[in-house]
Amino acid sequence: MKLTKKYEIGQKVATREAYGDALAEFGADERIVVLDADLSKSTKTANFKKVYPDRFFNCGIAEGNMISVAAGLATTGKIAFASSFAMFAAGRAFEQVRNSVGYPHLNVKIGATHAGITVGEDGATHQCNEDISIMRTIPGMVVINPADAVEARAAVRAAIDYEGPVYLRFGRLAVPVVNDEDTFEFEIGKGITLREGKDVTIVATGISVAEALKAADTLASDGISAEIIDIHTIKPIDKELLQKSAAKTGCVVTAEEHSIIGGLGSAVCEALCEKTPVPVLRVGVNDCFGKSGKATELIDEFGLSAPFIVAKAKEAIALK
Amino acid sequence: MEQQKKLELEKIATKIRLGALEEVFSASSGHPGGSLSIADILAYLYFDKMNIDPKDPKKADRDRFVLSKGHTCPALYAALALRGFFDTAILKTFRSKTSILQGHPDMKHIPGVDMSSGSLGQGVSAACGMAKAAKIDKASWRVYTILGDGELEEGQVWEAAMFAAHYGLNNLCAFIDFNGLQIDGDITKVMNPTPIDEKFKAFGWNVAVINGHDFDQIEEAVAQADKSDKPFAIICKDVKGKGVSFMENEAGWHGSAPNAEQYAQAKAELEAHLASLN
């Protein structure tokens, strides 16, 4: 799927902003309804509300009800987007997502923003590092974690066109656009090889993709050729692409702004262990809670930034 | 209500009870008590009130029904089968691994089931979503749901109640199966949700309190709901295990199946009642 150009490479845009703008951009389809739980200015669903106020419904601070209401709307043919922070959409309302949306496989799109530790100052209670893990265990749930505004916009378009439940994970922090929209194509379940290499495969998702690209530059200056794969869809994961790359390079590093338990790192291990078992080292939140701080500082504090990916890549190569 | 119609509905309700017990007995598991208490409401909705078509279970302008207290699906399945959505012969396959009749309602596989439910509190929210959809589309179809009285202990019910009132969902009618018992016993002793009528009123609903086994009262309350300017709650004082002497008002029959002897007795009692109506 291809869209007309909107974002420039290097431009800094939070994926939540691109989400809200995409809802407004593609919102003319009258089947679309958008629900929020009193966070519309933060989740950016307010951008949709501004254009289509008649199809925006605030549910108040009641996320469980919101998800089941979205399910009810979807039974009638509506495409229901339901938004809150990842912590509440995936965490608090997990069981509603599973039973009201997942089990009947309804056409509900969960637009979860403020994922990961780059929530920043709000601290651990609001920094959800578990959502990819718990959402991908729900049968039939598509899980997408866009790297930048280009992917976020395309993911919204793809989610509208896809019939079934989708979990969309967006961030608060403005991050650089890494994809060139002139050539960018998005397909649910298809990873993107951003850079080809031969010594190590770095598989990244979400805002870690930009860090992985920085890491690749550093590695290149050290004479190491890193292949960079951007996995925007964690479920269904692009097994074929991962296996092919792992077979070529012989070792893998995963990078995500999420717990190393259950997220991209786990999904990649699952994808590789059957046919191409190579060393896989994981960069992510290391089984701990977050804390308050500036988002950009926390990325270093929790070991998610480019230098940590570089170090892990070297470790991985040594294990070959 | 006309006497003849009332008699017909009572027969149907009795057949729903017989069907529900056949299911639970065949499965050796399930929830007979609350199935028996809601049989009259289901008979009224499926055989008199709702605009539905068993030949076209998904028709767009149908009235919707959500069994928020999904565990009492034996009664719903019996009502759907009797109404012609599927063969009554499959009721005895309830809860078996090759059956479409899952232990809790499954909209993907059971004709006539509008929403999967079973996790308490979620069905009523989904019903709100349906009612909201009808409002968005300016459609005239209505949404009915049945909640358990124990289910009212779920906080989500009150989130949904707020939502329904806030969005003026006067096309939503919720029956509360107020039989006074939940798994662990008397609802007022486990976690008291009363006064139920005052709570719904405070949440911005119109309310009727009726005898849930009296078709005149059910019809009158639903007629009020049709004209209501707010979402409408019908609090049905009813009897858990209704129609089977040894199950009535016994919390123990919430989620236990009768043995062969008990089933034979229950069946005989209901069949005798049915015969008396002919």
Explain how this protein is built.
- The complex is a heterodimer of chains A (320) and B (278).
- In chain A, 39% of the residues lie in helices and 20% in strands.
- By secondary structure, chain A is of the alpha/beta class.
- In chain A, strands 3-2-4-5-7-6-12 form a seven-stranded mixed β-sheet, sandwiched between helices.
- The longest helix of chain A is centred in the last third of the chain and has 14 residues.
- Chain A is globular, with a radius of gyration of 18 Å.
- Chain A starts with 11 loop residues before the first strand and ends with a helix.
- Chain B is globular.
- Chain B has a single domain, classed as Thiamin diphosphate (ThDP)-binding fold, Pyr/PP domains (Rossmann fold), CATH 3.40.50.
- In chain B, the strands form two sheets. Chain B has a five-stranded parallel β-sheet, sandwiched between helices. Chain B has a two-stranded antiparallel sheet with strand order 4-5.
- In chain B, 54% of the residues are buried.
- The mean pLDDT of chain B is 98.
- Chains A and B meet through helix 4 and helix 6 of A and helix 5 and helix 6 of B.
Biggest interface, residues from each chain:
A-B, 29 and 34 residues
How many β-strands of chain A, per DSSP? Answer: 14
Count of DSSP-assigned helices of chain B? 10
Any idea what the CATH superfamily of chain B is called? Thiamin diphosphate (ThDP)-binding fold, Pyr/PP domains
Task: Please count the beta strands of chain B (DSSP E, at least 2 residues each).
Answer: 7
Oligomeric state of the chains present here: heterodimer
Number of domains of chain B: 1
Helix content of chain B: 40-55%
CATH T-level fold name of chain B: Rossmann fold
Order of helices and strands of chain B: HHHEHHEHEEEHHEHEH
Known CATH architecture of chain B: 3-Layer(aba) Sandwich
**Classification by helices and strands of chain B:** alpha/beta
Percent of residues of chain A in helical segments? 25-40%
Radius of gyration of chain A: 18 Å
**Could you spell the SSE succession of chain A in H and E letters?**
EHEHHEHEHHEHEHEEEEHEEHEHEHH
* Main structural class of chain A: alpha/beta
